[in-house]
Amino acid sequence: MPADLGGATGTTTVGETPSPARAPETAADPVGSAEEATDVALRPAYRMRVVFERTVMAPYRDTYRGELGQAQVELLELLYMRGPLRQQDLARELRTSKQHVSKMLARLAEVGHVTLAADSASARGHVAALSDEGRAYVDDHIMQGSRQVQAIFSHLSASEREELAQAMDTVARLLEKV
User: How far are the Cα atoms of 16, 155, 162, 171 from residue 159, in angstroms, in the given order?
Assistant: First the structure.
């Protein structure tokens, strides 16, 4: 029997996206309280995150399975997208401690994916950058993940795939402004 993840709003089987509980709406008060307005505003973001993570990101991250942990992958992705970063900036972006970043960087440097240089602004810190090997490693995983996602999207028509690509580009562009 499928697991019940839905609680009071009904049942949701494992693998389905649970529907958030919704407050009753009236014609005079379509949203209700400020709390409910915030809830309504967050629903699309939550739904997009869940669907995007499951449909697009999971197949991509699966290409790293058994090689690196998720935090290490996120660190490599950050260096790939933003270029060299100071250890403290990596810690802030990854929402983790400088000590954890230090351990991850040591491991990634050991396998040749990153290079470390002294941080002129901090006597104890480092500036991390992807090595050529690290960039090739991430490029390879991007290609593997892209092939998997293309296979997932193969049931969509060409125009639907184009519409989806444009929508993802628009969302990414707008969120990069935040």
Answer: 26, 11, 5, 18
Q: How many domains does the chain have?
A: 1
**pTM of this structure:** 0.67
Cα separation, 9 vs 21, whole angstroms: 6
Distance CA 33, CA 87 (A): 42
Query: Across-strand partners of 126?
Result: 118
pLDDT digits (tens, 9 = 90+) for 67-78: 888 899 999 999
Alpha carbon 169 to chain centroid, angstroms: 15
Count of CB atoms situated within 10 Å of the CB of 125? 20
Any domain includes 88: yes
Is the pLDDT reported for residue 16 higher than 50? no
Is residue 24 classed as helix, strand or coil in its secondary structure?
coil
What is the b/e burial string over 38-68, where b = at least 16 CB atoms within 10 angstroms of the residue's CB? ebbeeeeeeeeeeeeeeebeebbbebbeeeb
Residue 1 located in a structural domain: no
126 secondary structure, DSSP code:
E
Task: Find out whether 58 and 51 touch, Cβ atoms under 8 Å.
Answer: no
SS3 state at 177: coil
Does residue 141 come out as left (phi exceeding 0), alpha (psi in the -120 to 50 range) or beta? alpha
